[in-house]
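Colleagues,

For the teaching module next term, I've prepared a clean inverse folding example: a structure given as tokens, and then the sequence designed for it. I'd like students to try predicting residues themselves before seeing the answer, so please don't circulate the second half yet.
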């Protein structure tokens, strides 16, 4: 089923331009998907899943983690990184960096 297509184990990278998913084969990481910060509409987590909703798509990207805490941590990490990027580009006031994401 294309709607629930799983690609196996991936590594997530958070960078200046967005979130990158990497496939790992024989210790070599190959980028397989890039989610630009500009195209990310919403980030959330549910149970053990990190959900990334992109503009122009109906279904979110779903990344399954090993636990609820890992999914929540990835959500807070991505939100914090995104806020920092907005701040460094002058699009976010400094006081918003200390706002809680809990």
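(Answer key — instructors only)
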């Amino acid at each position: 089923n294309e709607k629930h297509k799983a690609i196996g184990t991936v590594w997530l990278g958070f960078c200046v331009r967005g979130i990158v998913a990497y496939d790992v084969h024989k210790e070599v990481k190959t980028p397989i998907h890039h989610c630009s910060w500009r195209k990310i509409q919403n980030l959330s987590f549910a149970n053990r899943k990190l959900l990334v909703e992109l503009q122009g798509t109906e279904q979110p990207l779903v990344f399954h983690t090993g636990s609820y805490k890992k999914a929540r941590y990835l959500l807070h990490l991505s939100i914090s990184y995104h806020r920092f990027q907005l701040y460094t580009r002058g699009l976010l006031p400094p006081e918003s960096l200390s706002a809680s994401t809990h």
